[in-house]
């Protein structure tokens, strides 16, 4: 076997994917593998076993992020590759999972061919990328970037009031702060697109230039509860009617301002059919490729909130819980991905990701870029998620070539604006 | 003590209220005493003890409704008085509870004065009037009226999937079908107003002529889930935006058509901040004093649903889960309440109840009417619920006088249209 013609073992990768797809499987093709759940533990245990079998030195840091290190010829900062193994509720099998398992396959392929690299390579499974169980998302990479403290992360609670730190201990993945990765030469994350563009334009590979900016809000509309059969409609302080009007108005505004707005969560309290709610709570997610546009929308949103509160005679509290500005990835790492795609003969498309990723935080501390695989119909965070084998194979091959190249490189100029 | 000047013992009634107000107490002044919960069992056990201490013969029927019988001089159909001891989540202390405890106080007062009545008197605590834990509401009185079967009632499930029949057995209140009350001479239910009219007009007593008609719907809006950062707004099939627009439109329609409309429950699935929902579910409660107006609104509602589904590119399913037409109470029973109010010197107001009550179903099988006590600010189903002592005393006195009168009467002409 010649090192020049080294190829990933796609059959082996497929088998690895299938093993992962059984852990937390729902409705045949879905995964329900929330961070720090029993299923997450089961997946972590298997991933650790795979890493050990591949000869990697395994470390767990203080928020449960898993690293597997393959030594280099020189003791230099490593190339980092990987993503996350947790999923949304009723999420898909591909998402970030392919990013971790392709990283593992790249290592296995290097072992097959006895490839030695100048720099060490580390593969990574970041804890709680999704933020579906513990908010906010991407807490583990955010910790590495200094965005969150360990105390903040450990004290996050899920909907049942269970604490992140305790759940981490319960599943046996509370490691140490000294195990965090420190100096990173470069980071490459593979992920599915989560949008329809690659499939629509018939491209093999998405070269991810950056990530949209995001703001999250928790809105509380406070009215006056009463029995459904009493107070006349026009005398009510009905938070549901205020919320419905506000959401409708914000949709129009988002269309006008060309931002993406999503209301993913909503609830009414006390929550009985025949009771006017006292409060209605809902979330707002706002995204744009342009920070100015996003901030402009937020100003209009706040104005509209004031107008609806006054019109509907309710109190509306808007809590700005999280913001992530637009991310620009590193041009040198992007150039490696481009040139390797070209030499492999893959068609590519430059993309700005609508979703956040761990690469967004790692980009703050090291030269970073991402590679997207096409997702059928652009479906993601859903049991219907599907990436065809042909694209998985191309994406895995590209990652292997990119990491080989990066692991032999000198230091890359790092500039936080990429 | 002369029987002619017999008076209820208001201090004793207040103490009884206070004992009830401790069982399931939340936030100082509220009650959270859902049907067939541990707190409901605790309240039932105490109420059974009180009935036994008052010399009543206690029976439990096959859906857990509790009866306490005081014998009459003749073995005739009894006069029935009472209401329900279950509450909404974070409900109040008064609601139907006063109807049960004033019935108990009427019996205790009769015992104090050794009053014998021609007919037996039975006091009643209907199971699950609220429908907050097991839908629909008023299942126990509906069973007596032939509206629901025992099998239907027993198979109802709460939000956690627990079955009514099993929960009834668990708390020890699964009695027998033969214990159901059969022939009822007349039924009088005392309840708080659940609206502001008595307080606003400064009246002591509400004489309840009937109950508004009600229809319940469960709406399911089905769209297409996806990540919040991908699909452009105008290409989404977003069930939340469709639901918000529909609710806003229906509010306008309800205002135009002079019906009462309430959306008390809403949820989005899968329910994550950064995921466009796949489905949004909400309830609709529509009420009117006029069945034609309510039915006319429902026709317009169905038209609007079709229009929004088409406009927003989603599927909307509207499941009509329950309807109760307008109720007219019995004129002879109402006349007894009127004349006793007059002789006691109480100011009264004729009212049509916006809320459903067990009296609505019992009205189908026996001469029935209701008495309302004023509620401060019209608040109900809320921890802030309050009926002032002066009104509680008048209401209790009136019930005592009304039941004395009815228990000596001949049969009352019964006509289902009242």
From TrEMBL, chains A, B:
<protein>
    <submittedName>
        <fullName>M20 family metallo-hydrolase</fullName>
    </submittedName>
</protein>
<dbReference type="InterPro" id="IPR036264">
    <property type="entry name" value="Bact_exopeptidase_dim_dom"/>
</dbReference>
<dbReference type="Pfam" id="PF07687">
    <property type="entry name" value="M20_dimer"/>
</dbReference>
<comment type="similarity">
    <text>Belongs to the peptidase M20 family.</text>
</comment>
<dbReference type="InterPro" id="IPR011650">
    <property type="entry name" value="Peptidase_M20_dimer"/>
</dbReference>
<feature type="domain" description="Peptidase M20 dimerisation">
    <location>
        <begin position="210"/>
        <end position="308"/>
    </location>
</feature>
<dbReference type="Pfam" id="PF01546">
    <property type="entry name" value="Peptidase_M20"/>
</dbReference>
<dbReference type="InterPro" id="IPR010158">
    <property type="entry name" value="Amidase_Cbmase"/>
</dbReference>
<keyword id="KW-0378">Hydrolase</keyword>
<dbReference type="InterPro" id="IPR002933">
    <property type="entry name" value="Peptidase_M20"/>
</dbReference>
